[in-house]
């Protein structure tokens, strides 16, 4: 189930609260699956999926969500909000909600949804940290010297995208940040992504690059340093230096940086062009 959300090296364990009938059988009708693994004190973009008891994605325009903090083993309601559904490739989708956590520790997300005329509420437990693992919104990212087509012998050394766009491999992150233009950088591995969202994510980046032209810099960083070796021996996989510098443990990951070099958008997992476009406009 976690693989349906994102391909990560350090997946977050999730659990759903369930009810049992008189025979001890579960009566859960939906399962809440967290898609966010890097939630911190402050404002967050939190994503989750709802699966029905047959493993299908539950799709509603929006669902009500309630956030509880676990204080001395007791859940305390802290806030409620509305999560909006966002389409994913392959007839999947997730819910996105802007959340604010005032302290670190264990929290509960409860989703409330009507199914067949019945109100269903299910929950999952997740962890909020005091410090973000990856570069956070409001911070300045590492001035990485990622590989470009000028430093590599071939595009196959840079990307597993079967139809690569040369423009996405023309700049280092350091040079892009020095240009004074907004930057969109995506960490993805189309050839080895188990969630099957990396390829579509890079296609979203290509589309937006064509929309904005030279007004915004776009960069694709391959997750792995040695894609050619991996095609022969998958066990030879090594994270790219840039992936390590940004301290990323899941993919795809997309960041939007404004003209001052400050991160204004951080998207773990797949993000569609409409939601990403809003962040780019904010950066501009």
Kindly describe this structure.
With 284 residues, the chain is α+β, with helices and mostly antiparallel strands. The chain is built from 6 helices and 13 strands. The chain has helices spanning 2-5, 173-178, 198-212, 227-232, 241-245, 273-283, and strands spanning 7-8, 30-34, 42-52, 62-71, 74-88, 92-101, 105-115, 118-128, 183-188, 217-222, 250-251, 253-257, 263-268. The strands form 3 sheets. A 7-stranded antiparallel beta sheet has the order 2-3-6-5-4-7-8, with no helix packed on it. The longest helix is centred in the C-terminal third of the chain and has 15 residues, at 198-212. The radius of gyration is 20 Å and the shape is globular. Residues 1-26 have low confidence and may be disordered.
Defining key terms:
284 residues; alpha+beta; 7-stranded antiparallel beta sheet; 4-stranded mixed beta sheet; 17% helix; globular; disordered N terminus
Give me the secondary-structure category: alpha+beta
Strand count, sense and closure of the main sheet? 7 strands, antiparallel
Q: Could you give the count of β-strands?
A: 13
Strand order in the sheet with the most strands: 2-3-6-5-4-7-8
List the helices and strands and how they pair.
Elements: H1 2-5, E1 7-8, E2 30-34, E3 42-52, E4 62-71, E5 74-88, E6 92-101, E7 105-115, E8 118-128, H2 173-178, E9 183-188, H3 198-212, E10 217-222, H4 227-232, H5 241-245, E11 250-251, E12 253-257, E13 263-268, H6 273-283
Parallel strand pairs: 9-10
Antiparallel strand pairs: 1-11, 2-3, 3-6, 4-5, 4-7, 5-6, 7-8, 9-12, 12-13
């Amino acid at each position: 189930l976690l693989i349906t959300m994102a391909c990560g090296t350090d997946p977050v364990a999730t659990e759903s609260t369930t009810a049992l009938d008189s025979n001890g059988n579960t009566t859960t009708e939906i399962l809440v699956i967290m898609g966010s693994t890097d939630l911190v004190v402050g404002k967050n973009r939190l994503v989750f999926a709802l699966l029905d008891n047959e493993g299908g994605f539950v799709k509603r325009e929006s669902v009500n969500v309630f956030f509880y903090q676990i204080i001395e083993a007791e859940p305390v309601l802290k806030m409620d909000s509305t999560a909006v559904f966002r389409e994913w490739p392959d007839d999947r989708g997730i819910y996105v909600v802007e959340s604010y956590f005032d302290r670190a520790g264990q929290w509960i997300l409860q989703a409330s949804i009507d199914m067949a005329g019945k109100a269903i509420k299910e929950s999952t437990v997740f962890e909020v940290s005091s410090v973000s693992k990856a570069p956070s919104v409001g911070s300045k990212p590492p001035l990485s010297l990622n590989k470009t087509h000028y430093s590599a012998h071939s595009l196959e050394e840079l990307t597993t995208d079967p139809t690569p766009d040369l423009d996405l491999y023309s700049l280092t992150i350091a040079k892009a940040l020095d240009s004074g233009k907004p930057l969109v950088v995506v960490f993805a591995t189309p050839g080895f992504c188990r969630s099957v969202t990396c390829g579509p994510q890079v296609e979203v980046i290509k589309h937006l690059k064509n929309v904005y032209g030279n007004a915004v810099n776009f960069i694709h960083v391959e997750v792995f340093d040695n894609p050619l070796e991996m095609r022969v021996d998958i066990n030879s996989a090594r994270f790219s230096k840039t992936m390590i510098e940004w301290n990323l443990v899941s993919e795809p990951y997309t960041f939007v940086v404004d003209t001052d070099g400050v991160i204004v958008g951080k998207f773990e997992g797949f993000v569609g062009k409409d939601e990403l476009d809003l962040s780019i406009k904010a950066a501009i």
